Amino acid sequence: MKYNTFTLSNGLRIIHLPSTAPVVYCGYQINAGSRNEAPGEEGLAHFCEHTTFKGTQRRHALEILNCLESVGGDLNAFTNKEDTTYYAAILKDHMPRAVDLLTDIVFHSTYPQQEIDKEVEVICDEIESYNDSPAELIYDEFENLIFRGHPLGHNILGTADRVRSYTTADAQRFTHRYYRPDNAIFFAYGDVDFHRLVRLIDKATKDLKAQKGADQDRLLLSPVSSLSMTSSTPTDPLRQKEEEGQDTATGLLRQKEEKAESAPEGKLRQKDELLSNSTYIIDKQTHQAHVMVGHRAYDVHDSRRIALYLLNNIIGGPGMNAKLNLALRERNGLVYTVESTMVSYGDTGIWSIYFGCDEHDIKRCLRLTRGVVEKFIDKPLTERQLHAAKKQIKGQIGVACDNRENFALDFGKSFLHYGWEKDITALYEKIDAVTSEQIQQVAADIMAPERWTTLIYK
After folding, report:
1. Which domain, by its residues, includes 448?
2. pTM for this one?
3. Considering only Cβ atoms within 10 Å of each terminal Cβ, which end of the chain, N or C, has fewer?
4. What is the pLDDT of residues 19-71, one digit of tens each?
5. Do residues 361 and 439 both lie within one domain?
6. 3-state secondary structure the chain
């Protein structure tokens, strides 16, 4: 794949991947998300994403809504932990319209209070709907346990009370801090002339000045390689301050673990030794029990990440032949959903397993899960097993890349954070280079059950 890239004088980076398809996916990705929020700003990045659509110096909210929709296009946005994306899907003939609108809302929104007052209730409804879905909520609360005391831990949406407190001034302060051309990229995937695209964006952003040197305001975590690998609660400078009862860099005071363990929102009913050194049971009064286990994992720059990526897919990836699905669902009929996931951030990562089951089956499912994982720690894959696993994951990647929208968002994100041009061939080569010994080593480093943190809703 041949990408085109260019950096404007104001620091905005542009990346374009040509395609013969008539639909263009394009947008801005901002290098700021929920982990950039200061104490007391929880949910503010997501709040800004919603209210950015509510008016600019040139357009009212209804004009923004109609600008692309009226020609059959689509305008959307979402907030992640480390970035925020505003993007459009449009026929190539309407590319100038998309560039103009996206630039206007990202860099010139006025956040009118009368519109905020209405949109806040929409956001609060989103928060409540999420709270009504334990299978989704448990992921956020699990991250809060793994990264407790750190901005990566709190959920993206924030709380309803916090969101209702935000005003025009809060949105303007946050976006002025991070919505800068030198802290963003513009990506495009489609049949457009690159030189014309650069001219369009240059014209649309001509009033924006470079602001080099502005702080990213990110509290970084120690990489997994520097953490203690003998405990389920890794130690790093942040953790050491918490254990000493000091204020962390996020402004949060944590008590010593022997006095009171930080727990997710909800009532901590019990802490016991349920196949894990660190188990939290929360009474959510759900019909089905929801369970997560996991540990911190490798950051996106760690070369071991590819081996963990492959092992994670073998254990609990989307394939029906994933080992956990076979053990818990197909052979024993204990669960409907079981999956493992890994997420790599710039400075750390998280690996986890989730399943939902009847309450009386929790311990059995945990024992089966432990048994699946320990097989990969105790014994390396055979060459035949390794070859089959690589063949499967490369096929899954190829199918996923056929989704042009997701592919566009993914290559934009890679370029935003790491300056990488997404290269599927290079990724395949890295997968092919993984050995059975590397698989066994990352299993021992990251997945060892004695290091698990366990969260249970019941």
Report:
1. 232-249+262-457
2. 0.88
3. N
4. 999 999 999 999 999 999 999 999 999 999 999 999 999 999 999 999 999 99
5. yes
6. CCCEEEECCCCCEEEEEECCCCEEEEEEEECCCHHHCCCCCCCHHHHHHHHHHHEECCCEHHHHHHHHHCCCCEEEEEECCCCEEEEEEEEHHHHHHHHHHHHHHHHHECCCHHHHHHHHHHHHHHHHHHHCCHHHHHHHHHHHHHCCCCCCCCCCCCCHHHHHCCCHHHHHHHHHHHCCHHHEEEEEEECCCHHHHHHHHHHHCCCCCCCCCCCCCCCCCCCHHHCCCCCCCCCCHHHHHHHCCCECCCCCECCCCCCCCCCCCCCEEECCCCCCCEEEEECCCCCCEEEEEEEEECCCCCCCHHHHHHHHHHHHCCCCCCHHHHHHHHCCCCEEEEEEEEEECCCCEEEEEEEEECHHHHHHHHHHHHHHHHHHHHCCCCHHHHHHHHHHHHHHHHHHHCCHHHHHHHHHHHHHHHCCCCCHHHHHHHHHCCCHHHHHHHHHHHCCHHHCEEEEEC
